[in-house]
Amino acid sequence: MQTAPETPPAEVAGLGYEQARDELVRVVTALEQGSPTLEESLALWERGEALARRCEEWLIGAKARLDAARSGASEQPGAARSGASEQPGAARSGASEPGGAARSGAPDPAAER
Predict the structure, then answer these.
(1) pLDDT tens per residue, range 68-91
(2) In a domain, 110, yes or no
(3) Is 103:96 a contact under the CB 8 Å cutoff?
């Protein structure tokens, strides 16, 4: 059973969504199997919390980008759905939500391509 984190805590901020998610799955599995010591369990838990926050940052950033794309599409002439900006959440940006992309520093997933 692997109990040591795969990347140092400072590097969690540099992980992509899939990397953070995959490591979080491994951490949860290790916690479910039980660690030999309380200290190892606590270290795994803390690591899992950091990875979960990183995944959430990515998801908030992705939602903000989708909201912006929907809003931009409804403002263009000839948009397929002229009422798209009237739908709940269609005109919102993630920046106005608690922990939104603007405040969280969530990366732009397209920037990693």
Answers:
(1) 999 988 777 665 554 444 433 434
(2) no
(3) no
pTM: 0.58
Rounded to the nearest integer, the mean pLDDT of the chain is 74
Nearest to 75 by CA among 67, 65, 85, 66: 85
Q: Which domain holds residue 58?
A: 9-105
Asked if 23 contacts 55 with a C-beta cutoff of 8 angstroms, the reply is: no
Gyration radius (Cα) of the chain, Å: 18
Total Cβ atoms within 10 A of residue 18: 10
Looking at the structure of the chain, the number of domains it has is: 1
